[in-house]
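Sample log: Putative glutamate--cysteine ligase 2.
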Amino acid sequence: MGVEEELLVVDPDGRPVPRGPAALEVAARRGEGETVPEHDRADRERTDDAVPGGEDDGDPRGQLVPELKAQQLEFATRVCADLDDVLTDLQHWRGRADAAARAVGARVAALASSPVDVEPVTTPGARYTEMTETFGLTALEQLTCGCHVHVAVADDDEGVAVLNRVRTWLPVLTALTANSPFWLGRDSGHASFRSQAWNRWPSSGPNELFADAAAYHRLIAQMVATETIVDTGMVYFDARLSERWPTVEVRIADVALRAEDAVTLAGLVRGLVETAAGEWRDGVPAPAVRSEVIRVAAWRAGRSGLTGDLVHPGTGRPAPAAAVVGALLDHVRPALAAAGDEQRVADGVAAVLDRGTGADFQRRIHEETGDLAAVVRAAVEVTHR
């Protein structure tokens, strides 16, 4: 498995600043970063068996790379076999991102949206410019940071079988990782407003069931043929097959404020993928739940996080968040046990339920200080704790 994180670049006062490209110049000189947006690198070739942060990148821990907005940095872990490796790499690359940002007078914070009002600045590059021109305010205002978890699958057939079986559980991950209650200077009323902003993209959200891998690829081709999205990289499903790597990529989560919560997320996602693959091999049919119902469940998860009811994937009815999270844990428990992750992930889930999400932390700081910039400064400290 591998984890990608997007981070917010902020000044010492707690305001997002467009110093991501400058920080990447510093990282590039240190051999830790790339300054050209990935889709603009015509000479960048990946083998079919490459994975995030893989050995083909030179540095086995990957590199810092640009994102859509200049107020962001992104990184990917190496390929990890266990959760200890995930935690080590997350801490390593959060630290290296912060070091690069410090060199240009900034810091990085694991915040999924900006609490303070800010005018997002698009990162230079042909693809990002095209996206901004094509999608207007959707792209102009899209200063959001997510966490993507890749888990290896044998082939596209297994990957599509996994996509069919994890989709009803993905909204629970939004609730667990909610870390974007503020949007451009005001409380959004949501625990994860990033999930709302992200779903402005025409290709985002849950998908219907696929008959097989060929049906999946036909749909992608049909979407690109509409000439609405810029390219296949803009297929922003909640979970998708990676274009370059033999993985299922789960994309629904906010970036987690605490690295240990991102590790818990990675363990749950691997558990979901392994459970789904096993069900497919055993002939267990995928739940026949419409994507409209899943979209409603995801909206509800983004609205209340862990502080209200969630839609239970097994019943389609509301239930207390703790009960639904417990059902997710029970669902993946055999896979967690097989990987040696059961106690660690259970403890991680219990910790989030006990102290709350990143959204809860942000609101507590704001209630104490009345200062949204103070929320950002506090988040910087927790990001690197």
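Observation: The CA atoms of residues 53 and 354 lie 33 Å apart.
Observation: The domain at 2-38+61-383 is CATH 3.30.590.20 (Creatine Kinase; Chain A, domain 2).
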